[in-house]
Design brief:
The protein has 230 residues and is an all-alpha fold. The protein is built from eight helices and no strands.
Length: 230
């Protein structure tokens, strides 16, 4: 399968180049917007960090209080140390755990929102424009392969006939009459140059890619020589 990215002529290639550049810029723009949403939501992690920091502060206070409790005092020492452990168990540790959970939840939300902000418009371009662009490159590549095979095998005139009949069947009437003032007469008289050239331009190729026929007198001389030889 042959692919051809752009038509031969600059005027035909320019719109496709501009469309490709706009598609790339569109994709980069929405990827950047998605990243901004991700960073904005992720900045909320300062809240979870504050919760965890508060829990660690409670634990530090409890540890410091526990160290300051005098030892050896019946009932009092155990009661004060139990109070410090209670502060750590029911205040510090839960706050630290909650801070980690909120931190992870904010990260997940940031990723999801960033992706779902950027992905729909990017997929729109990839699925709509990208598929059309792929088919367009395949069509131009197939036309180029058709012309190359005709040139290599020496069947340029037969290829022109095929292109001329295809032009009559596929071009709009405006395009057809712009290519030839008498399309029916051209087909009847085997004048394929104008119609085939219009079809090649429609396919994105320069008509000069197909070898030009020789002068009429020379073609007639070749036919007579071939007939005499038979």
């Amino acid at each position: 399968m042959m692919l051809k990215a752009y038509p031969d002529r600059v005027l035909s290639a320019t719109p496709r180049v501009l469309a490709d550049v706009l598609a790339i810029l569109w994709t980069l723009l929405w990827a950047f917007i998605g990243w901004l949403v991700y960073e904005t939501v992720l900045s909320l992690q300062v809240i979870s960090d504050g919760i965890g920091s508060t829990g660690r502060t409670f634990n530090d206070w409890a540890a410091a209080f526990k160290k300051a409790v005098p030892s050896g005092i019946p009932f009092v020492t155990d009661a004060l140390q139990g109070l410090a452990d209670g502060v750590r168990k029911y205040s510090g540790d839960p706050l630290i755990a909650a801070g980690h959970q909120v931190h992870d939840a904010i990260f997940q939300v940031a990723v999801v929102l960033g992706i779902f902000t950027a992905l729909p418009p990017i997929l729109f371009v990839l699925l709509v424009y990208g598929i059309w662009r792929w088919r367009d490159m395949r069509e131009m590549g197939a036309a180029l392969a058709f012309v190359r095979i005709a040139a290599v095998t020496g069947r340029a005139e037969q290829a022109r006939a095929v292109l001329a009949y295809r032009a009559v069947s596929t071009l709009t009437f405006r395009q057809l009459m712009s290519a030839s003032s008498d399309p029916v007469g051209d087909l009847a008289e085997h004048r394929y140059e104008r119609l085939s050239s219009a079809m090649l331009r429609r396919a994105g190729l320069d008509p000069t890619r197909l070898p030009q026929p020789g002068p009429p007198l020379l073609r007639g001389h070749r036919r007579r020589t071939h007939t005499e030889a038979e």
